[in-house]
Specification:
alpha+beta, seven-stranded mixed beta sheet, 14 helices
Length: 578
């Protein structure tokens, strides 16, 4: 470890030289009260900023051990410190100066969710923050004195404000941790209560706008209020007794007029797989971890998926037991999305008729009379949704605004009226009995197979050419550049953070080089990846050993699998029993 003064002298020595002279500062430095790691130095002021870490000894950081005694609390503390570090940057860092990315100090910025990240690490021995710094330059010449100001003036003030317990709002930090622990506790209790989701009374579900995930505020906001028939009371470690609406296992419909809150409720349930920060409004909107949003996705590639539970007898005799296409239709893409989710172990499906293929969802009596089943390859979801629950224990929550035929297969019907839910199950059943729809069930005697598939590792190649370097990059929330192609994740609606997208890209390469061997199934391989992450942290995914990436965020097996399935070069082998 080098003395901090050496960094100052080095910056003075290289002042005015070519930008690559900054490589001389890479290393570890002993600053008063913390250790500075300069892990990677950018080669150009216009390149990605340099990667650094600050590590504060636990004795100086002063965080009570009980704040990070279990994983959910540790993750919440790390999330809070990341937010505190970002706020301190805004206060103390001067910002852009010079050419390119000169002068910036930045850390991974969390949104409304509390995600496990690599931006902060809390252990019994130390507290560490990982961030980036744009080393300052004029053109491509080192601005050594500006760098001195960043390292010796701005950074120490940021560290003092964000990484020491005495500098933080202790009550706010504790509430951050307690709220996360309450959500995790509640999520763990849902299934033994016979529920797949819970929405607390008083929750605020509407968001600020279509591009902002912050809660809507103002006098027109309608706080959530559970219907009496679905109201349950839960006891949480910190919030105590909380009442709200329990969504039972089985088939649940969300109905109501347009603009009355149907899709708003479903979106909140989609995000209920994550813990949320205090003040979000959805702190106690909690959904089981294996809930997966399904939609139609015209144009996506499908690789050897057995969609025969939904689609058979295609014109031309194409085998739907190993269905492949470069340009899926709405119905075939939605069928594939469901089967792929089931293949990875989904326990709840979330659907909205607005983003579903109409011919996949329903075929009414009149259409059955006009087009005989022998000429219709699609078995609609209405005839499979009950089988999914009875045979596989897979529940469904479905937003419906136009098809009352689903009343016949629903276990629970919730009507949204001006954002207020009502339990109308009894009334829906009475209507179904009084106005018999007369359609013939087309689902057959059972749901049908969910056939596992094994990816071939060589089909996941992130190199642009035979001799080219590995190229993997997140391009916003919904695109991954993987070698010579882009993976489109715009229909994977439960992704919430670009750092998750970045994690997925590197996780695909990690899986391809270790576990995709044509024998191991996709689920088995991705479960091994998730197991490695649980044991070694997200750092294990980094292709650049020793750089300690600060911009990963946790994802589920379902989002990893969705990316694999949307890779256009993917090749698989089906794994039939026997």
């Amino acid at each position: 470890m080098r003395d901090a003064d050496l960094l100052r002298r080095t910056l003075g020595r290289i002042d005015g030289r070519g930008y690559k002279a900054y490589k001389d500062i890479q290393g570890v430095y002993d600053f008063p009260g913390y250790t500075l790691f300069v892990d990677h130095v950018q080669g150009d002021p216009f390149a990605a900023p340099s990667r650094l870490r600050v590590r504060v000894p636990a004795a100086r950081a002063g965080f009570p051990a009980e704040l990070f005694s279990v994983d959910v609390r540790r993750v919440a503390v790390e999330d809070y410190l990341t937010r505190a570090f970002a706020a301190a940057i805004s206060r103390f860092a001067r910002g852009h100066r010079g050419s390119g990315k000169s002068g910036i100090i930045a850390v991974d910025r969390p949104g409304q969710e509390i995600l496990e990240r690599t931006s902060a690490v809390v252990t019994e021995s130390w507290v560490e923050i990982r961030f980036v710094m744009g080393l300052p330059a004029a053109g491509r010449r080192v601005l050594g004195q500006e760098a001195v100001r960043m390292f010796y003036d701005e950074l120490p003030r940021i560290v003092e404000a964000a990484l020491l317990y005495r500098s933080l709002d202790a009550a706010a930090l504790r509430r951050h941790v307690d709220v996360a622990e309450d959500q995790e506790h509640l999520r763990g209790q849902l299934r033994e209560m016979g529920l797949v989701a819970f929405v607390a009374d008083g929750a605020v579900l509407p968001r600020e706008s279509g591009v902002s995930d912050r809660p809507l505020r103002g006098p027109k906001v309608v706080p959530f209020r559970s219907p009496a028939e679905l109201r349950v009371t839960v006891r949480l470690p910190h919030a105590g007794e909380v009442t709200g609406m329990g969504v039972p296992a089985g088939v649940t419909l969300i109905v109501g007029g347009g603009y009355h809150g149907k899709s708003t409720l479903l979106r909140a349930l989609e995000r209920g797989i994550y813990n949320h920060i205090p003040g979000d409004g959805r702190e106690l909107v909690v959904t089981v971890q294996d809930a997966v949003k399904i939609r139609a996705e015209d144009g996506r590639r499908v690789e050897q998926v057995d969609i025969s539970p939904f689609i058979n007898n295609l014109p031309g005799g194409q085998d739907t037991r190993a269905f492949s296409t470069e340009q899926a239709s709405g119905s075939t893409s939605q069928a594939a999305n469901i089967i792929e989710a089931l293949e990875l172990g989904a326990g709840v499906l979330l659907l909205d008729e607005d983003t579903s293929a109409t011919n996949f969802m329903i075929r009414d009596r009149r259409m059955q009379e006009l087009v005989a089943k022998s000429r219709e390859p699609i078995t609609p979801f209405i005839d499979k949704v009950g089988q999914l629950y009875r045979e596989r224990g897979v529940s469904t929550i479905l937003v419906v605004g136009g098809s009352g035929d689903y009343f016949d297969v629903a276990d629970t019907v919730i009507m949204m009226d001006n954002y207020v839910p009502q339990d109308v199950t009894a009334r829906a059943r009475e209507i179904a009995k009084r106005f018999g729809q007369g359609r013939q069930a087309e689902g057959g005697g059972s749901f049908g197979p969910v056939t596992p598939r094994s990816p071939l590792g060589e089909s996941l190649n992130p190199r642009r050419g035979r001799r080219e370097k590995v190229k993997i990059a997140a391009r916003g929330l919904h695109t991954i550049t993987f070698g010579s192609e882009n993976i489109d994740l715009s229909a994977v609606e439960q992704l919430v953070d670009e750092s998750q997208t970045r994690t997925i890209g590197d996780a695909l390469y990690y899986a391809a080089t270790r576990y995709f061997d044509s024998r191991t199934t996709l689920r088995e391989a991705l479960e091994k990846v998730m197991g490695d992450i649980r044991r070694g942290g997200l750092d294990v995914l980094s292709p650049f050993r020793g750089q300690n990436p600060g911009d990963y965020a946790m994802v589920r097996i379902f989002e990893l699998g969705a990316a694999v399935n949307r890779l256009r070069s993917l090749k698989v082998r089906q794994r039939h029993e026997g």
